Amino acid sequence: MAAITDSNIDQSIEKRQSKISSREIRRRKVLNNADSRLKFILGCEQSFNQADVSSSGSSQSRSLDVNSVGPKQQQSHPNQTELHASAKSNYTVNDNVSNHDAITKESPETIHDQWLEMKRKSLASHTFPWTTFIHCCLVSGTASIAALIKLHYFNNFLNSYFNLPIIVPFIILTLLLILPESISLKSELSIWSLVMRYCLKSLEYNVPGGKRNRGLSVIATARLLVAPQELSEEDVKRALVLGWCVEFLQAFFLVADDIMDDSVTRRGQPCWFRNPEIGTIAINDSFMIESCIYNLLKNHFRQQPYYADLLDLFHETTYDTEVGQTLDLITAPSYVDFSRFSIERYQAIVKYKTAVYSFYLPVALAMVMTKNTSEVDYRDARNILMQMGEYFQIQDDYLDCYGDPEVTGKIGTDIEDNKCSWLVVQALSVVSDEQKQILQDNYAKNDPAAVQRVKDLFNELNLKQKYCDYEEQSYASLRESIDKIANQDLAKALLVFANRIYKRKA
Questions:
Q1: What are the pLDDT digits (tens) for 241-274?
Q2: 3-28: per-residue pLDDT in tens?
Q3: Cα-Cα-Cα-Cα dihedral sign, residues 118, 124, 130, 131
Q4: What is the pLDDT of residues 105-129, one digit of tens each?
Q5: How high is the mean pLDDT of the chain?
Q6: How far separated are the first and last CA of the chain, in Å rounded?
């Protein structure tokens, strides 16, 4: 093993410093080239912007102004032959050595500047859609600029040895960078178009149908809460948007509810999931419908001071409704257990599953939009609207059993689905042991004969008359509660809703 001497150490240090110095020189040249190329691109864009302004002038004014491209001023445009002759004159190659040992007349920095200036002149002598190309490069961002830097030596190679114009590497760059990105973007847009067409089909099928009472309640409430002159055209538009948000929420709940209940029809047509090409895809469709709500809110209310209040209302309402749906499902499992059916459980289901989103939400949205901040008004409205929601759901249960499908738009399945409906709760409170056994044997059976035996028992217990008596008592109680409200505009709006649902048939 050779001994390590001071001389060896000095030589190693010198070699290391030489390598570092060479690497640093190459690094600086690459950075300088990148900076020059970027200035060149931006300069071309500026030049063409100026040319566009003066496009009404002579054809001479439409050509590229070299003076605006870079810091080195040129007054004439030499032809292509002169440019390549000039390019070759800057390089003197010794035939006896390799290309790496090329001897130059001038320093590398000076040669690079001259090379860049010649390419500027060459650019001026070619007709090419540079504005479009530069725009694409700038849009493509750092990827295109990095590619320009990497093509530095390729440009030298083409210009010096093959006498090809500077336009060739740029065309290659366009094909390599811009075209693939365009193809990728087109493919992505095609995918989005496919999804959007499907979502539009789902929205058109599930959202517009029905009576739209919930959505119309928003604008109706807004018009009753403030004077007509205080409700601007923009306010009306926002109220309508909120109304459609409520209808989207309703559609979201119904699509999901129909799947869970295995329903047959909805709003006079087969349930969405019943369509052969849909099936369980409807589960995801319900999520997509819900997401539309928050896109609408963001697009139309993001700048409003009450935007957060609207989001809170929709989130809280969705949560309350899902709590009610959970109560409904766990109360009616796949087997009959009448011990779970009680008036207290029924009222809780109704409150959360129906009353909050069908009655309180539309009124509260209008109150928020009209900048009502009275906690007393919100409390009064919620209490009365919860009563109204219970009355509405009891009507729904009655119509599910006795309503005309041609009028209601759906075939009732509460008996087959083992639902804790108002009718069965009332029946259980008055039946004899023998009658209860009939219910036990026929309730929750997907058999038309069994369903008819349950309906016959309801008729025997005179539940139709009991419902009519309840309807009158409930309406009278609502009127009495509304009369006690201090805010007369709010009381007027609530009375309109009570009258709207009184003795409804669908």
A1: 999 999 999 999 999 999 988 888 888 889 999 9
A2: 555 565 566 656 655 655 666 666 56
A3: positive
A4: 445 455 555 555 555 554 444 444 4
A5: 75
A6: 103
Q: Is there a catalytic annotation at residue 257?
A: yes
Question: Which tokens is 415 given?
Answer: 């008996």
Q: Which tokens sit at 257?
A: 């509810």
pLDDT at position 128 is: 40
Q: Residue 225 to residues 72, 300, 312, 355, 364: CA-CA distances in angstroms?
A: 72, 21, 21, 21, 11
Active site residue 353: yes
pTM: 0.61
Structure tokens at 356: 């909050």
The pLDDT of 469-478, averaged and rounded, is 93
> Active-site residue among 15, 211, 379, 503?
211
Question: With contact defined as beta carbons under 8 Å apart, do 224 and 374 qualify?
Answer: no
Burial 411-440 (b: 16+ CB within 10 A, else e): ebbbbbbbbbbbbbbbbbeebeeeeeebbe
DSSP codes joined into one string, 205-231: HHSS-S--HHHHHHHHHHHHHS-GGGS
CB 458 within 8 A of CB 474: no
CA–CA separation, 59 vs 57, rounded Å?
Answer: 7
Check 258, 285, 397, 414 and give the catalytic one: 397
> Which of these, 7, 61, 42, 13, lies nearest to 135 by C-alpha position?
42
Q: How many CB atoms lie within 10 A of CB 22?
A: 10
pLDDT for 247 equals 94
Closest CA to 367 of 321, 299, 313: 313
C-alpha to C-alpha distances, 77 to 45, 133, 209, 246, 413, nearest whole angstrom: 19, 22, 71, 68, 86
Cβ within 8 Å of residue 66, ≥6 positions away: 73, 74, 77, 120, 121, 124
Residue 446's pLDDT band, with cuts at 50, 70 and 90, is: confident
Residues 273, 279, 282, CA angle at the centre, nearest 5°? 60
**Rounded CA gap, 67 and 120, in Å?**
10
CB-based contact 173:167 (threshold 8 Å): no
Q: What average pLDDT does this structure show over 285-300?
A: 93
- Tokens, residue 187: 């493919």
Q: Examine the pLDDT at 86 and tell me if it is beyond 50.
A: no
Q: 489 is written with which tokens?
A: 């505009």
- Catalytic position from the list 119, 351, 353, 453: 353
Q: Is 186 a catalytic residue?
A: no
Q: Choose, from 257, 377, 380, 400, the residue flagged as catalytic.
A: 257
Active site residue 261: yes
What's residue 210's pLDDT? 81
